[in-house]
From TrEMBL:
Native source species: Hemibagrus guttatus
Transmembrane segments: none
Region called Disordered, residue ranges: 18-47
This protein's name: Kinase
Regions of compositional bias (Polar residues) in chain numbering: 34-43
UniProt-listed Enzyme Commission number(s): 2.7.-.-
Gene Ontology BP, a term: inositol phosphate biosynthetic process
Organism ancestry: Eukaryota, Metazoa, Chordata, Craniata, Vertebrata
Keywords of this entry: ATP-binding, Kinase, Nucleotide-binding, Transferase
InterPro entries the record matches: IPK (IPR005522), IPK_sf (IPR038286)
Length: 376
């Protein structure tokens, strides 16, 4: 079925805006126990599911009305948003991953998305519907994660004037820069801990500081991961090629999710990546599907004792620090490291007959900045 016809059947009503959890400060270390409870709560999900421990942006389960959970089988569950956003995203995934899909454009798009495994609901709450999706971080031991919203505007063509003005106020440079850093989580090899940066950090970046801001995602406390930058560029270029060919869909308020392994290759645990990790006394459940449900609840309880605490960080000396770092090129085998770059968040996807110029502009600008990072 033609994607324009399919998506065109969706109701295009006005959606209510769910307030997100506001974090103070531009960037951060791990959060203390009482602060963790304040921001993520201790609410458990249905049937052994737990809030996604390494989520860097978006609605968080137990904080917002909708959020993302981790299922015991290693997938993630994204709770459906209220209409029209939730049904629109469900329709998008159903269309792209339809069993009888024979559209070459959509079949190629699948490689740039998390795998979709249909919907899911708990027998106890059958009306609470979730999208069952691949967890693209599950094969990484210390996943470094970055969420970047792409496009020149983060509101769709059917947004009210009030919604448009609200989104523009959040980040006036979106039209000029073409992307917005929503959050990131970076493994520091020297400290054996994660540094996290929230949405306020990204919105504080300007035309002059956005490169140094993105640099932090590729800096592991010891050196700039140029190999990861190179692999990321290749992935984004592949997505750009798809957008330059297709004229079926336009994407608004959609993001790219970047993931790479934070552990240096020499320290990789060869026994497998489905492991229980310990960072500064914090047990982090990372898709170990062999754990019993009782252990999972225990782990979640302990995980609720710590989170990410934003604290001011100075960008002024950042460029100089990177210039002093070692250049980490390809590994000894000459192969680029495993890097995932996937498109996510499709509550504002609409049929079209023209190129998605806003998204293409954002991708090209992002590639330009990544190349500048690599060339420095």
């Amino acid at each position: 079925m033609d994607s324009s016809v399919t998506l065109g059947r969706l109701e295009l009503g006005r959606a209510a805006v769910s307030p997100g959890a506001l974090l103070n400060g531009p960037g951060a270390r791990e959060r203390s126990a009482h602060q963790q409870q304040q921001h993520t709560g201790t609410r458990s999900g249905p049937l052994g599911c737990v809030p996604l421990s390494h989520q860097v942006a978006g609605h968080k389960y137990g904080v917002d009305k909708v959020g993302i959970l981790q299922h015991p089988d290693g997938t993630v569950l994204k709770q459906l948003q209220p209409p029209p956003r939730g049904p629109r995203e469900l329709q998008f995934y159903s269309m792209v991953y339809a069993k009888d899909c024979c559209d070459p454009c959509l079949l190629e798009l699948q490689q740039h998305l998390p795998k979709y495994y249909s919907t899911w609901s708990s027998p106890d709450s059958p009306t609470e519907l979730y999208l069952k999706l691949e967890d693209v971080t599950r094969h990484f031991q210390k996943p470094c994660i970055m969420d970047v919203k792409i496009g020149q505007r983060s509101y769709d063509p059917f947004a009210s004037q009030e919604k448009r003005e609200q989104q523009i106020r959040k980040y006036p440079l979106m039209e000029e820069i073409g992307f917005l850093l929503l959050g990131m989580r970076v493994y520091n090899v020297g400290l054996d801990s994660f540094d996290t940066y929230d949405q306020h950090y990204g919105r504080g970046l300007t035309q002059d500081t956005v490169k140094d801001g993105l640099c932090k995602f590729f800096y592991n406390g010891d050196r700039l991961r140029r190999d990861v930058v190179t692999a990321s560029i290749a992935k984004v270029q592949s997505i750009l090629r798809w957008f330059e060919k297709q004229r079926q869909l336009n994407f608004y308020a959609s993001s790219l999710l970047f993931v790479y392994e934070g552990l240096p290759s020499a320290q990789d645990d060869k026994s497998g990546t489905q492991s229980l990790q310990k960072n500064e006394g914090v047990l982090e459940y990372n898709n170990n599907i062999e754990q019993s449900l009782s252990n999972m609840y225990s782990l979640h309880k302990k995980a609720c004792m710590q989170s990410h605490h934003p604290s001011p960080q100075d960008n002024s000396a950042w460029h100089g620090l990177l210039m002093q770092s070692d250049a980490c090129e390809q590994d000894t085998t000459g192969q680029l490291p495993e890097v995932e770059v996937r498109m996510i968040d499709f509550a504002h996807v609409f049929p079209s007959e023209v190129h998605d110029h806003g998204y293409i502009y954002g991708l090209k600008n992002l590639l330009k900045v990544l190349q500048e990072i690599l060339d420095d």
